[in-house]
Amino acid sequence: MSLSRSQTQTLKSLFPGEELLLSPEEAAPFGADASRAFAQPWAVVRPRSLEQARELLAFAHRERIPLFPRGRATNVVGDCVPQGGGIVISTLFLDSLAIDPEDFVAVAGPGVVTADLAAAAEGRGLFYPPDPASVRISTIGGNVATCAGGMRALKYGVTRDFVLGLTAVLPGGQVIRCGGRTHKNVAGLDLARLLVGSEGTLAFITEIILKLLPKPAATASVLAGFASEAQALAAAQAVFRAGMLPAALEFMGAEVLDCLALLGPTPWPRETRAALLLRLDGSAAALAADLDSLAAILRAASATHLEQGLGADQEEPLWEQRRLINPASFRLRPDKLSDDVTVPRGKVAAAVAGIRQAGAAAGLPILVFGHIGDGNLHVNVMYDAAAGESEAAQRAKSDTLDLVLSLGGTMSGEHGIGLVKAAYLPRQIGQEELSLMRRIKDQFDPHHIMNPGKAY
Amino acid sequence: MPRFSPLTPALLDEIRAAVGGSAVLTTAADLDAASADATTERRRPEAVVRPASAEQVSALLRLANARRFPVTPRGTGTGLAGGALAFHGGVVLDLSAMDELTVEPANLLAVAGPGVLTHTLRSEAEKHGLFYPPDPASLKDSTLGGNAATNAGGPACVKYGVTKNYVLGLTAVLPTGEIVTCGTRTRKGVVGYDLTQLLVGSEGTLGVITTLFLKLIPLPRAVRTQVAVFPSLDKAVAGVAAIMAGGCCPSACEFLDPRCLALVGDLLPFGDLPRDASLLLLETDGSEQAADADMALVSEVCKKSGALHLLPATGPAERETLWNVRRQVSLRIHDAWPVYVPEDVVLPLAEIAGFVAELPRYEKKFGFTVYAFGHAGDGNIHLNITAPDRSTLDRVEAGTIALLKRVLELGGTMSGEHGIGFTKQRFLGLELSPASRCAQTAIKKALDPNGILNPGKLFDEDPA
Question: Is residue A139 within 8 Å of A69, Cβ to Cβ?
Fold first, then answer.
């Protein structure tokens, strides 16, 4: 299938010049995302206005043409891949951005890069906390569509906690405006929150109103090494028990530390088997004292290695090892299956031990690290496809997901379902719940033109 | 054909068979107790069902859906929008007996039945060094189920967010009887449509919440409290903006307009205040050092912004005294005026002072008196519209509409906390576009094809 001549003509009249890409060569780069899956788009459109989006969704609804919304395609589960063919709608020309320091809001087009938004807010003394790892290259529209998280989620919450309102176009072309510039709103059903995390399957978002916070005056970080994972996990609990809510709390397991050592010297002594990275933020006057309290708590929780930094210049070196995990991982194997499971906070130790067993059973190294304060663990199953390890890797992944669900967890804390995890969905979501989601999908998108084949 | 079946003796027997006889209450006292909430409306149901389990709720809703009788969920009836009243009769589903509560300190999680009082959760969490921040004014009497159904707020929301931000997952019974579990027990989760967030704030129109999984956070070790009096509301609101621009997010930031301050001025040691004087009640929290440092910043900024008086609380007792001043405002308004309409609009932060300054114009035109107080940090203003007698109700209604229209013009919303329920549904069309209403109604229809759950609320304007 592809577009008919008259359909192509309609697109040409709606999207002049560079707003429409029709040739296979020009469209092809819009067929893949960070999942590395690919499908050739029939066409790519790049609307600049709500009106164009409205006409496109009315047209596609009428003609039953699949639409695939796309930002910068950093999604790792295939949400941006136009599987089965259709029109890719790029959000990148919808990139207006206004920061209102009096109302503490940002009004952004979906195509704005999240780091640009955060920097613009910071320029006005304000703070947009969500910081997915892709923050420099991913768009706010994509972040909203997947409810992106990040390290700061522990203290500040995830993307949905910052969406005050949005404008979206429904299949058929109706425009809905949900919420607004107010920091509270309970008038009617919360359609904004329903669209957040819906992975582009319900509507096309054209504008987002985000809540901003006062910018914390100062930050400080601690890197702590422990002789065992159990001690590191107990130390994390001790921090909470002391009434501290860090702005980030990252964990690196034994395999991760060994893997980092392959790249070069590491800051911790060799007998270190687990490490925590913590960040505090707040007023400059209090932070030095809070940092000392934190270090004392970690020491009392038997940290064997402690480094602390006050202010970005001192902190950044402490975080360097965390950033090196991805490049270091490929020293183990050339291929990776990556998951971002989340378990109840108290089940992290059981999850780490169980995942290690899954790795041993499959004969493959598995790296476990991540946002331990949220129970959100990044699981990297490393394998060599060329050496015939793919099947073992899939088995390890499947075992990991079963383990996580048995611990009361979720198979995704940040990435979403997309194409890659769709097959696993029934393991977590029951029949009644799936049926309910499909009823909602049918109300919004009766002909299933929005991002078909994904998620629900 | 009438929309709903009356509860005939035969139908009541079917209900008893479905949920167990002891859960069905029909004495006059039972029906009276379930016929009121915090509004002046009274609606008597035909029966009250008090379930102890989700299965009973499911059995009742299955039957209601098959036999077409209305079911109105209810906690402790503290709602200000009539959301818990049985406008079409039928069954009031009283969830107050579903009050199981488990705090899981290792998971920083609470698992709560809908009937648990908000205050009970907060104090249980505190015993474990944990904190459940949402603090609606009704927290001593209101239930978590009700708080979730209305997405309750409170003074702490400026720093910590509203109820929605703390509901990680829930179990609910759909109007057609299915028991569904949405969301997670984990602190993050992006699998599936966010049905949790759809049900939170839906005012009992989409499902009956039977279990809540609530996020807890470490309990801040220290709180500092201070009252600041400014020569005008304009200056007070500018002070709030300056505090936040200074990088400090107070854990409470309440304001009283001049009229409210005059009402409770005798409780404060400041003597005579200028006519336009307005008050801020500010708190900071965190570690001892952080709470002190932030409060020092607050004091400094208040002085620079022209505060006339600063009154810090030196301990928990004085903190209580200062909060009591804030609480007395509502009570005294209530006592002083026979007609009392509580609106809770929200404005973009920059519009607060300008809007309050316009109130006298509306007072003059419509002959009512408006007291404004509320949450300056998040723009949520409680507009207490009062009048001396009921003969003025028409003008009060016209003036309320005029005020709501102005709020919407300024980019605000008609409700930040109370919800729409019955009392505001006639205004909803002012705020929501037809397309948005249509999408919301479609969701309601998909979940509740026969409209049996909490009819007469939100978009359902079928007159009772």
Answer: no
For A202, the closest chain B residue by CA position comes to B193
Question: Which residue among A125, A176, A408 sits closest to B433, beta carbon to beta carbon?
Answer: A176
d(CA B70, CA B85): 11
- Among the partner residues B294, B379, B436, nearest to A183 by beta-carbon distance: B379
* Amino acid letter for position A46: R
Nearest to B218 among A103, A191, A244 (CB): A244
Angle (CA) A33 A38 A42, round 5°: 105
E-assigned strand segments in A199-272: 204-211, 213-214, 218-226, 248-252
Tell me the chain A residues in contact with residue B417 when contact means C-beta distances shorter than 8 Å. Answer: 184, 186
Residues of B in contact with A219 (CB under 8 A): none
* CA neighbor of B107 nearest in space, from A87, A56, A375: A375
What pLDDT digit, counting tens, does each position of A320-357 carry? 999 999 999 999 999 999 999 999 999 999 999 999 99
One-letter amino acid at A220 equals A
Furthest C-alpha separation in chain A: 73
CA distances from A98 to A109, A151, A207 (A): 9, 25, 11
pLDDT tens track for B383-419: 999 999 989 899 999 999 999 999 999 999 999 999 9
- CB within 8 Å: B194 and A181: no
CATH topology assigned to domain A218-326: Alpha-Beta Plaits (3.30.70)
- The DSSP code sequence of B180-225 is EEEE-SSS---SS--HHHHHTTSTTSS-EEEEEEEE-EEPPSEEEE
pLDDT tens digits for range A389-428? 999 999 999 999 999 999 999 999 999 999 999 999 999 9
- A432 vs B: CB within 8 A: yes
Residues of B with CB below 8 A from A437's CB?
Answer: 192-193, 195
Where are chain A's structural domains?
A: 1-214, 218-326, 332-427
Give helix A229-241 / helix A348-362 axis angle, nearest 10°.
160
Determine the 3-state secondary structure of B402 from DSSP.
helix
For the record, the structure tokens of A398 come out as 């499947």
CATH of A1-214, one of 3.30.465.10, 1.10.150.120, 2.60.120.20, 3.40.630.30: 3.30.465.10
Residues in Cβ contact with A8 at an 8 Å cutoff, skipping those fewer than 6 apart: A22, A43
Q: Say which CATH class B337-409 falls into.
A: alpha beta
Amino acid at B140: K
- What residues of chain B lie within 8 A of the CB of A100, using their CB? 348, 350
What ipTM was predicted for this assembly? Answer: 0.94
- Cβ B446 vs Cβ A440: under 8 Å: yes
Architecture of the domain whose range is A332-427: 2-Layer Sandwich (3.30)
